[in-house]
Amino acid sequence: MKNRTPILQLMIVSSLILLHPSGSVFAAENNTGAPDGVGLGASRVIYPSGSRGVSLKVNNTADNPFLVKSEVLDESGQHEAPFIVTPPLFRLDGGQSQALSIVRTGGDFPADRESINWVCVSSIPPEPDSAWDDSKRDAGKEKIAVAIRMLPVRCVKLFVRPSGVRGNSLDAANKVTWTIKGGAVVSSNPTPFYINISEASVEGKKLKMGKSYIPPFSEERYLLPHGIAKSNSVVRWSVIGDYGEEKEKTVTVK
């Protein structure tokens, strides 16, 4: 009788902790580079209100595979938004890319202005000698591997743009005004677009920004740096367009 030795390979490839970025979406924003392997192919996504879906590429520049989780969160980063991302959970091999399909499933978004959500991806690498790391696989041994090391979450803005909102955010930024009121620098956005700012300074001193955008028909207040005059001060700021392009603007606050 032939001796048969069954080989059991129990592959627990992930105990992927489904943590939302919570308030950290702002810290994770535009973190599209991939120093540890997984990165996003764009710094923002525009979703036309009448669209049947948009896509976003996820890239793995490392040699090893990652398990990647994708989702769309609301502006706060604490709740799921009415979108389906496909695939929601997938293995991404080294040197490969995966296109995410993002489809709106509902939601009551205003028709007179943009709305903001966040596309976020989180990833875990294989632990040393784990069964799903091809470079370390040993088919002759039983393996139980649980990967629980979560790498930093990456999030980019997802703007729902109504059909009635014409133009683009870069041109709309020309209508933003800056003033100094009391101990604050105030930026006012009279347009239906989210105005995205990478940085801003007054008289060469950087402003501390709680978030990197001015919502439609709203204003944002930034603490006035010490020693800055309340009039005739120069504000320099960089605005980010629909495709990630940046343009520096300068205005003198009267």
Structural topology:
Blueprint: H1 25-28, E1 38-40, E2 44-48, E3 54-60, E4 66-73, E5 83-86, E6 89-92, E7 97-104, E8 115-124, E9 154-161, H2 169-172, E10 177-181, E11 184-189, E12 195-202, E13 205-206, E14 213-214, E15 218-223, E16 233-240, E17 246-253
Parallel strand pairs: 2-9
Antiparallel strand pairs: 1-3, 3-7, 4-6, 4-8, 5-7, 8-9, 10-11, 11-15, 12-13, 12-14, 12-16, 16-17
Instruction: Return residue spans where pLDDT drops below 50 for at least 5 consecutive residues.
Output: 1-19, 139-147
In CATH terms, the superfamily of the largest domain is Immunoglobulins
**With helices defined by DSSP (H or I, 4 residues minimum), what is the helix count?**
2
Q: What structural category do the secondary elements indicate?
A: mainly beta
* Mean residue pLDDT: 84
How much β-strand is present in the residues? Answer: 35-45%
Q: What features would you describe in this structure?
A:
The chain has 254 residues and is mostly beta strands. Strand 12 and strand 13 (205-206) form a beta hairpin. 31% of the residues are buried. The chain has two domains: 22-161, Immunoglobulins (Immunoglobulin-like); 169-253, Immunoglobulins (Immunoglobulin-like, Sandwich), CATH 2.60.40. It has a five-stranded mixed beta sheet with strand order 2-9-8-4-6. Strands 12, 13, 14, 16 and 17 form a five-stranded antiparallel beta sheet that branches. A four-stranded antiparallel beta sheet has the order 1-3-7-5, with no helix packed on it. The model is unreliable at 1-19 and 139-147 (pLDDT under 50). It has helices spanning 25-28, 169-172, and strands at 38-40, 44-48, 54-60, 66-73, 83-86, 89-92, 97-104, 115-124, 154-161, 177-181, 184-189, 195-202, 205-206, 213-214, 218-223, 233-240, 246-253.
